[in-house]
Amino acid sequence: MRQGIYTFFKFCFKFGVVFLLFVFCYLLYIFSDLNRDINQEKLSEIIQSVSQSKAQEDRIIDMYNSIYDDALAKSTVNYLFHIVADSERPSNPCYLIASRSYLSNNRGLSENDYVITHHIEKEVGRRKCLDCLFAMYNFGYRAIGIGEAARIYFEKEVSDLSEEEIIGIFAMMENSSYYNPKRWPNVFKDKVAELKARRNKWIRN
Predict the structure, then answer these.
(1) Does the pLDDT value for residue 90 go beyond 50?
(2) Exposure of 82 by Cβ count < 10 A (0-12 exposed, 13-18 middle, 19+ buried)?
(3) Is 137 within 8 Å of 119 (Cβ atoms)?
(4) Which of 10, 21, 79, 170 has a C-alpha 20 to 30 A away from that of 191?
(5) pLDDT tens digits, residue range 154-164?
(6) How high does pLDDT run on average in the chain?
(7) Quick one: 112 exposed, middle or buried, by C-beta within 10 A (0-12, 13-18, 19+)?
(8) Strand, helix or coil for residue 144
(9) Does residue 87 surpass a pLDDT of 50?
(10) Beta-carbon neighbour count of residue 29 at 10 Å?
(11) Nearest 5°: phi and psi at 84?
(12) What value does the CA radius of gyration of the chain take, rounded to a whole number of Å?
């Protein structure tokens, strides 16, 4: 009886080791340049679009980075843990670009958003992805990009926005239909207050 139990656990252990080794090797493959399941033409289009984006003001980038937990300092691997450990939406700008731009619904595991994020990050970096995100985001009311959003919602140019108005832009980027100052002003104000508190906590720390 003991011999049978020992043999069973020995088999389970060997199977577990082989399985973990397989998973590790597969992850290395899908995140490497050897991955041929990626639509290279589509990926090249995304990378080119991101690389040509207009650079945003440093103060806007710094504020985003402070509110969204040093988003520019993280790598793709950190965001894999959001799948199982955190229900909060990942704030990595390259992830947000990948999830919005890569429109195919027929992708397999080897061509998921995190894999695409990794390749975009490697080519252009997270700062450039954030520049692109500000330029392409649909803020509603025909406001595409931060420039039009500043004019439509605050009647200002981006350079003239106050800190609170910039935080309002960030709030709309989480959900431009719900956190919208024209449609739901009270909900918008509450969200801005939440993000301001998050920024103040970051400054204190």
Answers:
(1) yes
(2) middle
(3) no
(4) 79
(5) 999 999 999 99
(6) 82
(7) middle
(8) strand
(9) no
(10) 13
(11) -110, -20
(12) 21
> For the whole model, what pTM was predicted?
0.77
10-24, 77-91, 182-196: which has the minimum mean pLDDT?
Answer: 77-91
Please name the residue that has the structure tokens 């402070």.
66
CATH of the domain spanning 41-204, picked from 3.40.50.300, 3.90.550.10, 1.25.40.620, 1.10.3810.10: 1.10.3810.10
Tokens 């400054």 belong to which residue? 203
- Of the candidates 140, 197, 143, the residue with the CA atom closest to the CA atom of residue 167: 197
- At residue 57, the 3 state secondary structure works out as coil
pLDDT at 173 over 50: yes
The first and second tokens of residue 172, run together, are: 């709309």
Q: Which ranges constitute the DSSP H helices of the chain?
A: 2-30, 40-51, 58-67, 76-80, 82-85, 93-101, 113-124, 126-136, 146-154, 163-174, 185-204
Rounding to the nearest 10 degrees, give the CA dihedral for residues 98, 99, 100, 101. 40
| Every domain of the chain and the residues it spans | 1-30, 41-204
